[in-house]
């Protein structure tokens, strides 16, 4: 094996629930009796990852997976996703994130549990910070700073 190194990635995650081509769709709606936390909701995602906060910014990958509302007390999500890179040196490689996302917190930390390609045996963490959120449509842009140890 090569020597282990630390890489830092910064990109913007676009969760689009509105419009003709949403990138996040509800596959399990929450029960009717739970409106605040949406406990039980499951959304499948194929969200663009861009270098800047605008959707028109250069796309470097896609976040593919799902998130589920797993808390009855707050907006607490279980995030299970792969950051699949589609550009440059990391083309075809993925970083896997699985963890708790208390969405109301300013900054949320989730573990990097692995990856594929150039990120085989990866470990680290991802910091998520909401950049914009539209409560009417549910659309959100989240800044991710991902720190990954890999070979």
Automatic annotation (TrEMBL):
It comes from the Eukaryota. It is found in: Secreted, Extracellular space, Apoplast. GO terms for biological process: phenylpropanoid biosynthetic process. InterPro entries: Allene_oxi_cyc_Dirigent, Dirigent. One of its GO terms (cellular component) is apoplast. Keywords: Apoplast, Secreted. Belongs to the plant dirigent protein family. Dirigent proteins impart stereoselectivity on the phenoxy radical-coupling reaction, yielding optically active lignans from two molecules of coniferyl alcohol in the biosynthesis of lignans, flavonolignans, and alkaloids and thus plays a central role in plant secondary metabolism. PANTHER family: NUCLEOPORIN-RELATED. Homodimer. This is Dirigent protein.
């Amino acid at each position: 094996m090569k020597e282990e190194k630390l890489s830092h990635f910064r990109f913007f995650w676009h969760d689009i629930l509105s419009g003709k081509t949403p990138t996040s769709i509800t596959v399990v709606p929450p029960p009717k009796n739970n409106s605040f936390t949406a406990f039980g909701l499951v959304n499948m995602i194929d969200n663009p990852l861009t270098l800047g906060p605008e959707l028109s910014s250069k796309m470097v990958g896609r976040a593919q997976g799902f998130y589920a509302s797993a808390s009855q007390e707050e907006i607490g999500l279980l995030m299970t996703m792969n950051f699949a890179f589609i550009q440059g040196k990391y083309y075809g490689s993925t970083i896997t994130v699985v963890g708790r996302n208390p969405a109301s917190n300013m900054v949320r930390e989730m573990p990097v549990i692995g990856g594929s390609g150039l990120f085989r045996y990866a470990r680290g963490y991802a910091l998520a910070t909401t950049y914009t959120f539209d409560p009417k449509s549910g659309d959100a842009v989240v800044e991710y700073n991902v720190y990954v140890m890999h070979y």
